[in-house]
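Example pasted here:
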Amino acid sequence: INTPFIAPGETYIFHYILETPPGTKPNEYNYTHVTATPSLCGVPDIKNIETFIYGGQWKDYQLLGVYKVDNPDPVHAGDILTYQIIIFYSETSGTLANVRLTETYPENTSFISATPAPTTGNNIWDFPTINAGNNIITVQLQVDNDIPNNTILDNTVAVSNMGTEYDRFTETTK
């Protein structure tokens, strides 16, 4: 995959579709090795990605997931902290009905805004349907002015479908 230039501090989201190895059973973990080689310095950066193979009563491969990226990180007292939340529905086309996203904001922050706007309070989004692929929500929080440097801010998001939680992710910001 070739990407545009990514400046220091910028974020670029890669979307991978991983195939499960033959013989994999539901509810098993697998490891995938991803290697990225920056064109400027040419030094490979190898990461291991843990994947979970879902199984259960739902349609095969109807995978619903959630991830988020914070900016800036590290964050300082008085900063505006932006989270980009990605809800992923792995079908190649179509929609999934009755999806709920629930945010748990970190202490020492205050909600400013979100796009799209929450449907309940400032931290719950109920979607009658979401499209296959990535669905993005952007949230802005104000960091308290009196927060000490290096304070850890944990922000947790969960996604559910028809009352069943499918995925949960916590982003840690310092």
